[in-house]
Amino acid sequence: MKKKWLLFFLVSCSLSLAAQQLDSLQKHRFVTSSLLFGVGLSNNYDTYISPLEYTGTEIRVMHERMRLTKWGHNRISLQSLVQVHLSYCSNPADNNHLLGGLLNWNYGLHYHLPLTASLKLLVGALADSNLGFSYNARNSNNPASLRAYLNLDLSTMAIYHFKLWNHPYVLRYQLNVPVAGLLFSPEYQESYYELFQLDSKGNNLRFTSLHNQPSLRQLLSLDIPIGLSQLRVAYVCDIQQSKVNNLRTHAYSHAFMIGFVRSIYRIKQRKPLAMPAY
Amino acid sequence: MKKNNLLYPYKNLLHLCCILLLVLPAFLFGSCVREESYEDNAMGNFEQLWTILDQQYCFFDLKRDEYGLDWEEVHSRYRNKIVEGMPESSLFDVLGEMLAELKDGHVNLINSGNVSHYWKWYEDYPDNFNEPIQRAYLGTDYRIAGGLKYKMFPDNIGYIYYGDFSSGIGASNIDDALQYLAVCDGLIFDVRNNGGGYVTNSSKLAARFTNERVLTGYIQHKTGTGHSDFSDFVPIYLDPSNRIRWQKKVVVLTNRRSFSATNDFVNSMRLLPLVTIMGDKTGGGSGMPFSSELLNGWSVRFSSSPMVGANKDALEFGIDPDVHVAMKNTDILRGIDTIIEEARLFLKNDEKK
């Protein structure tokens, strides 16, 4: 009987110790990152280059890094989302092609609002910076168009944790909408020769908002546990539009992506740790 | 915990923000930026072509004043020639004829089998250039530096022929040519039958003939779809090259086929004190061309940014030479290039003075 009590005491102590160790872990040191690759459909339109919509395929890479901060009692998270995509599209007659590419970086904060134990809403703001191009080899002095714009996005996210066959899954939906920004654009028929070789003083930096840049980015993802890893499948709906300087553009993307999620715990260490010797 | 949280009192407001953001896409989808729709048939492609030119071509006002161009009248006249189901080749011919109303060498309709063109700016005039004769002047011992062909004539006059402003010329190419000809008493720079190319090559070459910054002209661009929607004039300066620069007399030879970037080169050169323009009037073509396309896949090129001279004078219809010289038939029969001979005489006489 004494042995049983002693065993119970030891188990209780070890569980208590484990709980203390978990408590001592700081939430803001957990970092979740993912790297996804995908392909999708692309529809590009830029009246500086052509009055026609070009359709085709795109490849896309997305890297996301997200962690809770100390602010707001661990209710504010920091997100860094980088996307690169390249598209190759054809005109309706399929006798000309448009090559497009964009590097997009979203960086900002979300405030967490738990609705239930398994569902929470996040709302926040992101800095949304973009740099890209469209290139049409057939055109004379308007073969390419530079895309450069910086936005302040409102962002919301819904995260739902659920279990299937005793395995944890995470379903997430994110929506980013640019509400104010600055966009570079040549004037209606301003050539890049005039822009970069001569001292042209056109209105090339324009303020944008919902009225002239009605755009959004949506991300729907599902995290699936596979052994010790998490597989992420995602659908990206990227709608970028602008109407400035009498030029109209859009870049619509629907991409399906797949990749892995990695969770790490950051250790603060002033002195570098030596690798153990074997 | 909740009391300590600064944002907790505003949780209802934050929930509302989330919901508003989640339903926002429905509103944004209502403001799609899509292409203007045309039917992909004869009438649809005609209307699209007419509209592209109507909104983007830059010389409507100039050509209305010059020869009474009325683009609306052109629309009604050519609309009557469009018949549904007409063969593609017939449609191409009608649309090409419509574009020829603009009388602009920079306006073309292009499909896989044809390019519509307006070449009356030189077809209606004497050639003032005979290639076999000019080849005989170059002989077989001429030198080549990029797109430049050059040699020294026996009377110690240098001669450079540049036949295409699309031909690459590096700074070293120009250095080598000018250095080789440096001992000459004068230079003939022949740009006859040069139909243009890169305007950057024009300024790269002209920069070798000036020692100071010169205002050579202005450029504008369209800022909207109206015929008169233009930006302010943007000045174009010619800056002296920091490499080898020519310091003796130069005669630039021109004819009606000196067009586009060549017209721009002549415009810069005519302002320089040591330069004389000789031959025939240039062909013009001062609108920087843009491209567009139709639903059926045909491509269209048109003038979109007008360039004018230093006095804001129109260059679209060509530049008159300082010394007008025409090729004589009697000379042609004897294998003599009248314009080259006049230029040699001009430089020799100038040397004597």
Low-confidence stretches of chain B: none
Strand fraction of chain B: 15-25%
Annotation, overall tally of beta strands of chain A:
11
Rg of chain B is: 27 Å
* Individual helix count of chain A: 3
β-strand percent of chain A reads over 45%
CATH topology tier name of chain A: Lipocalin
The end-to-end span of chain B amounts to 100 Å
Distance between the termini of chain A: 45 Å
Looking at CATH, the homologous superfamily of the largest domain in chain B is 2-enoyl-CoA Hydratase, Chain A, domain 1
So how many helices of chain B? 12
- What Rg of chain A, in angstroms, do the CA atoms define? 24 Å
Mean pLDDT of chain B: 92
The tally of structural domains of chain B comes to 2
Number of strands of chain B: 13
Q: Which CATH first-tier class of chain A would you pick?
A: Mainly Beta
Bin the helical content of chain A.
10-25%
- What is the CATH topology descriptor of the largest domain in chain B? 2-enoyl-CoA Hydratase, Chain A, domain 1
**What is the CATH architecture annotation of the largest domain in chain B?**
Alpha-Beta Complex
